[in-house]
Write a structure and sequence with these properties.
Elements lengths: L4 E4 L6 E2 L1 H16 L7 H9 L3 H9 L3 H15 L5 E2 L3 H10 L3 E5 L4 H10 L7 E3 L13 H10 L6 E5 L2 H10 L2 E5 L6 H10 L2 E3 L2 H8 L1
Amino acid sequence: MKYKCLVFDHDDTVVNSTATIHHPCFAEYLRKFYPGESMSLEDYFLLNFDPGFIPMCRERYGMTDADLVHEARFWQNYVKDHVPVAYPGVREIMERQRAEGGLVCVVSHSFDYNIRRDYAANGLPEPDAVYGWERPEDQRKPHPFPLTDLMERFFLRPSDVLMIDDLKPGYDMAAAAGADFAAAGWAYDIPEIERFMRQNCPLYFKTVQALADWVR
């Protein structure tokens, strides 16, 4: 076991969700409440990558705190009836980690109950801890709190932890907490994101199998 704790992002790392759920949801939200505005799937990936979802909403659409709460409620209602599918091979990584006595945790911009629902629906092991969107903004990635709190709770050192994520906020969080980071590159083919991740992340995996081989 290379790491005592594998920390997974959720969307586009464990489940294929942006292209099938989150982008269609956001596009529908813009159509209803920001007439004339639109966003392509590629732009949605890029702006979630940098500067991140909340800065994107504030800077591009002028959303206030109240607007962000409204958008989150719209999203919650949408995802209640849409369950994403896990990438093949992810379950095996988690099951092996758990069988060897390791921890499987989640740090995501999805809500805790949606994450747990998706894990159950896809036959994934129950996470040891989940840090989701329901937490205050300063306790969500890219802030280091989720990882530093995990390390305190489970008596871990930064070297015990591998954060696996497809976007820059996860990379920023891991760097701030001193944990290792693995870039998940299997959800999309966007040159700008792949270039940044390959240049800045010592670990970059284009397939789930490549990650599985590394953590074995």
